[in-house]
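Progress against Task 2.4 (sequence-to-structure conversion) is shown through the following example record, which the project officer requested during the mid-term review.
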Amino acid sequence: MKALQYVEIGEPPQIREVPTPEPGPGQVRLKVTAAGACHSDSFVMSLDEEQYTASYPLPMTLGHEGAGIVDKLGEGVTEVTVGDSVAVYGPWGCGRCYQCAQGKENYCERAAELGITPPGLGHDGSMAEYMIVDSARHLVPLGDLDPAANVALTDAGLTPYHAIKGSLPKLVPGTVAVVIGTGGLGHVAIQILRAMTSVTVIALDVDEKKLELAQDVGAHHAFLSNGDAVDAIREATGTAAIAAIFDFVGIQPTADLGAKLRGTETDQVLIGVGVASVTMGTLGSPYDATVRAPYWGSRSELMEVLRLAQAGVITVETETFSLSDAATAYERLHEGTLRGRAVVTP
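Structure tokens generated for the chain above:
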């Protein structure tokens, strides 16, 4: 079968012929219908040799957003049936610890110890004609949802949904939510905020086209993420409290901007794959302000996200690529020329 693999440190991924995998006991093989390209993949491919080899194998099939048709069952699998259309829950865990017992495999207590990794972020993922899923519990029914249009919800929907749910008690009528970075995840976050709350949604980005997308999907206001952003927000919202800042970039400049926007009881939520320092403390931040760094989401939350999609209240802006053109999807992602998400349809 064909697969898009990262083969050489610092070089673009390659389409390669690899053996079609066979499912072992308890495993499921999917015929992949859609696979999403994500900034997390680009981050992994940007690591130097020492950083990469400490956590990831070579070669590695990319793709941690996946959907497919159940194609073959390993011994003992009874939870799914050949022919089922499913989405893959990506952050795999041990299935037995306290967090996993709640469906929070994204926070598995033993994954690192046991060497359990997400597909495409530690072992072969979904950018291939077929993929192996270690357990049927990681498969969520897609029903009549179009795989290509919705595969990105397994990360670009689940991650903002999980982040927003953590702040829901503060997202009350009359308050403001700020979304920094309105591309792949941010434009879905705006829709989730509009669907689940009545807050005023402010979108910030450095790209005018992404600000247009933000307004297309429901942002009340959209401003360039620069030195004028704080004043622009204050002028647009007056004295309304900023309840939460959802930062889908997660680098020092955006963290600094978020810190300027914090008020009493504001949540500053750092979601983007980056590293930043944020000043906290009674004399270093507004009273009861918090900083959180959530990761992905739970299995039950993925089910909830797909129900929002089935209800027609969230959609993903996508551009599709064939498997042979999958490397181009990552080039476009790196260049920042995608309006939303890139999806590969093997």
